[in-house]
Design a protein that fits this description.
The protein has helices at about 20-40, 70-80, and strands at about 5-10, 10-15, 50-55, 65. With about 80 residues, the protein is an alpha+beta fold. The chain has one domain (about 5-80). Bound molecules: zinc ion. Zinc ion binds near residues 43, 45, 72 and 73.
């Protein structure tokens, strides 16, 4: 499972703790699409999985930040999700 977290307007949220069902569904669909595109990626050198953070001022303007063990992994993930 992909490691993804969400931060909306400076507040950490997750599909499970959104009070609003529509917003929860939006987060879930982002999570699903990111999982599908990068879920199987691991660093060839370090065996690590990337971490994704979806961050933005509002839930419909989230951009994805990628972190990982090294630049090669981050580049590989960015190619998939952008
Ligand atoms: Zn690495």
């Amino acid at each position: 499972m992909i490691d993804i977290s969400f931060e909306v307007n400076g507040r950490k949220v997750s599909p499970n703790n959104m009070g609003n069902a529509i917003e929860a569904a939006m987060l879930s669909s982002i999570k699903d699409s990111v999982s599908q595109s990068v879920g199987s990626i691991r660093c060839a050198e370090h065996g690590q999985k990337p971490k994704i953070k979806a961050k933005g001022r509002s839930i419909d303007s989230l951009s994805l930040e990628v972190t990982g063990c090294c630049d090669a992994l981050i580049e590989q993930v960015k190619k998939k999700i952008t």
